[in-house]
Amino acid sequence: MNKAFIKTIKKGFTTQFNAIPTLIFSPGRINIIGEHTDYNDGFVFPAAVNKGIITAIHKSESNSSFAYAIDKNELLEFSLNDIKPLPKGTWQNYVIGVVAEMQKKGITIGNFNIAFGGNIPAGAGMSSSAALENSVVFGLNEIFKLSLSKEDMIFISQNAEHNYAGVKCGIMDQYASMFGIKNNALLLDCRTIQAKPFEIDFKDYELILINTNVKHNLSDSAYNNRRSICEKIVKLLKVKALRDVSEDDLKLIAHKISVEDFEKAHYIIQENNRVLLASDAILKGDLKTLGKLLYASHNGLQNKFKVSCDELDFLVEQAKLNPHILGARMMGGGFGGCTINLISKSATAAFKTHISKVYKNKFNINCSIYTVSLSNGTHVIK
Ligand code: GLA
Prior knowledge:
Layout: H1 3-17, E1 22-31, E2 43-44, E3 46-59, E4 65-69, E5 74-78, H2 91-104, E6 112-118, H3 128-143, H4 150-165, H5 172-179, E7 184-189, E8 194-199, E9 205-215, H6 219-237, H7 247-252, H8 259-284, H9 287-303, H10 310-320, E10 325-330, E11 336-344, H11 348-363, E12 368-371, E13 379-380
Parallel strand pairs: 4-6
Antiparallel strand pairs: 1-3, 1-13, 2-7, 3-6, 4-5, 7-8, 9-11, 9-12, 10-11
Helix pairs in contact: 2-3, 2-4, 3-4, 3-5, 4-5, 8-9
The structure holds alpha-D-galactopyranose.
Alpha-D-galactopyranose (GLA) binds near residues 35, 36 and 127.
């Protein structure tokens, strides 16, 4: 981990609170394939990365608690006895949301001071919010010796996202951030919450992320809308989740739903299947098949589930024109953020130059390009 980054956070904390904190690293994530399948009890294939949030935390004797966002230089004072969601879109909700969700579970904590900062680009769709939530619950578990399991903790984080950030997310982001394994991606079954690690070494190929640097408004409400459409269809079919539905099952109720809703549910069934095919392809080292699945995933997200945007589509179209790229797709919830691209290492430099130029010409904004390494999940920094 970046030593300068750790030092900055530690210094930010001590300057503000004058104490020696416990330090937690909580990573962001990528997702190889399996988008919007998590809240349908399906499969996803994420990995924790070496970009994330560092949180410094310490018990306090004062009558209130303080949270300090070092990058924004914003301080929040709050009372543990009176926690309510603040207006949407603020980092504060992730912190107090975790505290409130712990309290709802009957967990008692004392006052504390917390400071954090991160190096996950904002709006990149790499789950900086899950990383922050996980770091808060993990840190509180450490300093108050609560003996929560990692599984307890990810559900607290997820509830904070639902009830304080207002996004009815699945469990992928919190899971990947908490349970990540260095050099591995995790084939996660979101029904059983059990994952199988896959060591990722694509030999002459690598995964690169291209950030559109846009996040379109209403992405949260569109996300919740997609989830409720899936739930509506599940009700009609009298099953537990779309995970349990085949294409034939869906066809049986086609006359009861709109064509658009049919397409959305159809996407989920197909995407869930693609995750399993992708894990087979990785096991066999068949990167061509993996690449095709990535393109198919994007096609479904763009045309059937309809959570892409012009910027993402453009990046994927450009990838398709390059014979050294085996596959690409939008990553995360959609409406902005990054594409993930499977590219020959020898072609990365030239593609970066090309894509930066054509993207700027088209949208008059710069894209950003990242390579990431796969990292361990949330842990104490020793
Ligand atoms: C967001 C959510 C996840 C998941 C993805 C889409 O990242 O937080 O739970 O649904 O979108 O796959």
